[in-house]
Structure formats: structure tokens, C-alpha cells
Design brief:
Membrane topology: Peripheral membrane protein
Distance between the termini: 13 Å
Strand order of the largest sheet: 1-5-2-4-3-6
Subcellular location: Secreted, Cell wall; Membrane
Number of helices: 3
Function: Causes loosening and extension of plant cell walls by disrupting non-covalent bonding between cellulose microfibrils and matrix glucans. No enzymatic activity has been found.
Organism: Brassica carinata
Number of strands: 15
Pfam family, one: Expansin_C
Radius of gyration: 19 Å
């Protein structure tokens, strides 16, 4: 990627326009109910996301393609907004499903509403607990992650599914390819959330990955896993998107 193209991407992220939405919260202050979820992540503490997360409404979730993206939110135009708190940053890790039971107009995650269902910790960072729901301004921002991109390998000798997480930059992955040291590059398909799969057996081969994010950037991570890799293991690349 040329320097000019990279600069254009960075500028576009930095200049993302603020949009209107609403925010609620789910779970208690421990955040236990926010673990797992529709993006395929597991223990959000172990995976580095913590409680700085949100479930997105249909209009934002985009059938799981927005999983891993990062947003900045600020409470606005409400008596329940906490004063001088600034903005919070969250990663999309779950889906807030629509509810078409009447009365429909009170179900904030229904299309076309743009809505963030935050962890209690993040909601109460910007608004009073008793408010329940507040208007917010939001925009996409670059994800800042520690360490390299991580790959959790699951499946069996005939089927490989890889959870791609801890992705910096745009954060949301829109294509993944895998390669054994004895194979050609193999395009993986999105199974659900940020889980990607292939029916090609690669047991006993060193694994490399090419990951492309929604901003068009692509990185290749060579020999992330050695020949002795096993299902259920997680491997961390030496680099990340920034």
C-alpha cells in the first residue's frame, strides 16, 4: 500500500462524522452477561476487550460484518448525561436483536434505529444509571490494540474454523485467507461473527494468514502457527493494523 493511500485511510478515520443514536446497557456491573455474544468472541477479559464493549442494533451490526469495529460515543442533550466526562471508546462485540412485539416504537434495537447496548460500566461512565436510555453522538475511530492479531483455531482434521480477534486499525475484518506451508492460499468464508472457516485439511502444516479489514488494508502474517499446532489453541502474530 502506498504512503498516499495509507494517509488517506488515516485521515478518513480521523475525520469520521458524528452521527445520532441512543444507548442503553445490559447486564450488571461485573459485565458477565456481555461475554460470548454474536461476534464469536469468548471471555472478553482474556481477549483484551474488557468491558469497553457494546452490542449493536441491526442497522449497525451489518450481519456481523461490523464485529471488531471501534466507536467513540458521547452523551448529548439529556439531563441524565454526566457532566465533563468526555467520550468513551468501545469495540463492537455483540448483537442487540430486534423485537417486533408491540409496542414496536419502544424497542430501540429495531431497524432503522442506530443503537448501542453498552456494558453497565461504560453506560454509567457517561450517563446516570437510573436514566436507562440516553441520546448519544457516535463516530467510527481506529482501534488501538495491544500486541498482534490473534487467531484461535477450532474444528477437526477436515474442517478448520478460526476466530480472528484483537485487530487494530479499522478492527472489522472482511476477508481472511489461510495457507499451510505445503498448500496454496485458501480463501476462508465467514461462518458467523469473526469466525472464518474452510473445509481444507491443514493439520501438520505451518499456518499463515492474510487478513483484510473494512478500510481496504491487508496484512499477511507468515508462520503464525508451527507444524505442531492443535485445535483449541490461540496464536498471536508479531504485528497488527495501526
Amino acid at each position: 500500500m502506498s504512503f498516499v493511500m495509507l494517509l488517506a485511510i488515516l485521515v478518513s478515520v480521523a475525520d469520521a462524522q458524528w452521527e445520532d443514536a441512543h444507548a442503553t446497557f445490559y447486564g450488571d456491573i461485573s459485565g458477565k452477561e456481555t461475554m460470548q455474544g454474536a461476534c464469536g468472541y469468548g471471555d472478553l477479559f482474556q481477549q483484551g476487550y474488557g468491558l469497553e464493549t457494546a452490542a449493536l442494533s441491526t442497522a449497525l451490526f451489518n450481519n456481523g460484518q461490523t464485529c471488531g469495529a471501534c466507536f467513540e460515543l458521547t452523551c448529548t442533550n439529556s439531563q441524565w448525561c454526566k457532566q465533563n466526562t468526555g467520550a468513551i471508546r468501545i469495540t463492537a462485540t455483540n448483537f442487540c436483536p430486534p423485537n417486533y412485539s408491540p409496542p414496536v416504537d419502544i424497542h430501540w434495537c429495531n431497524p432503522p434505529n442506530k443503537h448501542f447496548d453498552l456494558s453497565m460500566k461504560m453506560f454509567t461512565s457517561i450517563a446516570e444509571y437510573k436514566s436507562g436510555i440516553v441520546p448519544v453522538k457516535f463516530r467510527r475511530v481506529k482501534c488501538q490494540k495491544r500486541g498482534g492479531v490473534r487467531f484461535e483455531v477450532k474444528g477437526n482434521p477436515h474442517f478448520i474454523m478460526v476466530l480472528v480477534y484483537n485487530v487494530g486499525g479499522a478492527g472489522d475484518v472482511n476477508s481472511v485467507a489461510i495457507k499451510g506451508h505445503k498448500s496454496n492460499w485458501i480463501s476462508m468464508q465467514r461462518n458467523w461473527g469473526q469466525n472464518w472457516d474452510t473445509g481444507v485439511g491443514l493439520v501438520g502444516q505451518r499456518l499463515s494468514f492474510t487478513v483484510k479489514t473494512s478500510d481496504g488494508r491487508s496484512l499477511t502474517f507468515y508462520d503464525v502457527a508451527s507444524e505442531s499446532w492443535g485445535f483449541g489453541q490461540t496464536f498471536e502474530a508479531k504485528s497488527n493494523f495501526y
